[in-house]
Specification:
Length: 390
């Protein structure tokens, strides 16, 4: 984040109905999440002069803004996959700090699950076959195959085991068990993860995110707006973004994600260290994403992610670094580009509004610092946001 003359805070967050939502359109989920975020902040639609959205419509921000009855004077439609929302939050924070906007609404909604059940779409195996992808798609190099190859490379180079990767899914489910709104809450074991149907070697079904419906919204505002909001402001302390590659053949190291750059920038700009974080919300379309992002954000050394996760460190209850405290994309919800959900959960944790899954220090205190890091494509992009409360 480029420092400007005004401080920036998240003043409103919300989710739409999530999980199994068979009777709503994506537009309706956008609107539901947006209304709830505004109500959470205690602001009205007229206060919103900035808008960011991606993934819906021919002209995504224009169509969705019109549906919501907004006429913004600042707009962003950056689309870099799952990291879109952390990158948009960075852009919005810069715009507010510079005085180009006062209150920016980020909103997303998807009926990915309901559309497949109703036959409105099918499960896609790739993002297309144009540009650089034309050299990979003919060989069956699907999205999940790319992640599976990267995971296998990490296993070969660093001795990471499939049991260690399974621990990520087990601990995500343990956190989801504390979240009444999570789609899957029943505990799972390492053996159950390993014995599931093979999807793409080495990933079985439970190594992969669930498919759900749902939406989310985050409202950022200048500090003078934050003073009048009904909720305690959560400060945007630092942000970073980075893009790495499009074709796997151009990815120099399968064991290093772009979070290695975006995380470093975010922590440097925030003036804090990874070991000061009370929790981390990490994009987890696959178990390997969590493990390698933990390494690249600096929570452990390169190649040490397997040993780090196998000690139960990611759990809300008893974990040294609670990760994906709502259950993540592996268990809570994953309606597509899930990065905005990471920000919602991070803010709720910092406010002390997470209920049974609330992170607390050993002295019972609420968390003061947290990080949300989104990943897009097949480790093609990353956005990282460090948040804190006064």
């Amino acid at each position: 984040m480029t420092r400007g003359s005004r401080g920036v805070a998240v003043v409103g967050v919300a989710l739409s109905d999530c999980g199994r939502v068979d009777d709503a359109t994506p537009y309706a989920l956008h609107a539901q999440a947006a209304r709830r975020a505004l109500a959470d902040a205690g602001l009205e639609r007229r206060h919103v002069d900035g808008f960011a959205s991606a993934g819906l419509g021919t002209l995504p921000p224009v169509e969705v803004a019109e549906y919501l009855g907004l006429r913004p004077t600042w707009v962003d439609s950056t689309a870099v996959g799952g990291s879109t929302w952390e990158v948009m939050a960075a852009h919005a924070a810069d715009a507010i700090a510079a005085g180009h906007a006062n209150a920016v609404l980020l909103v997303y909604g998807s009926t990915a699950r309901a559309d497949i059940r109703a036959g409105r779409r099918t499960g896609n195996l790739s993002f297309g076959a144009r540009g650089p992808l034309q050299f990979e798609v003919p060989y069956g190099h699907t999205l999940i195959a790319k992640y599976a190859m990267a995971a296998r490379r990490h296993m070969i180079e660093h001795g990471t085991t499939i049991e260690q990767l399974a621990e990520v899914a087990v601990q995500a489910r343990a956190n989801a068990a504390l979240n009444a709104d999570a789609m899957f809450r029943e505990p799972v074991t390492v053996d159950e993860v390993l014995s599931g149907p093979m999807i793409a070697d080495p990933f079985t079904k439970l190594h992969c995110c669930i498919r759900s419906d749902g939406g989310a919204a985050v409202l950022l505002a200048a500090e003078e707006y934050a003073r009048d909001c009904r909720t305690a402001p959560v400060r945007v302390l630092g942000t970073g973004e980075h893009v790495s590659h499009a074709a796997m053949s151009e990815w120099s190291d399968f064991t290093v994600s772009p979070a290695a750059v975006s995380g470093r920038l975010a922590f440097e700009r925030a003036g804090v260290r990874p070991d000061e974080m009370d929790f981390a919300q990490i994009y987890d379309a696959f178990t390997y994403m969590t493990l390698v992002t933990l390494e690249d954000l600096g929570f452990c050394g390169k190649g040490e992610g397997g040993a780090f996760v196998e000690k139960g460190r990611l759990r809300v209850e008893g974990g040294e670094l609670p990760v994906n405290t709502d259950g993540g994309g592996l268990s809570a919800q994953h309606p597509g580009m899930r990065g905005l959900f990471l920000l919602v959960e991070a803010v709720r944790q910092l406010r002390g509004e997470a209920g049974a899954r609330q992170v607390r220090g050993r002295d019972g205190r609420l968390p003061r610092l947290g990080v949300a890091s989104g990943t897009g494509g097949w480790f093609c992009s990353s956005g990282t946001v460090v948040l804190g409360r006064d």
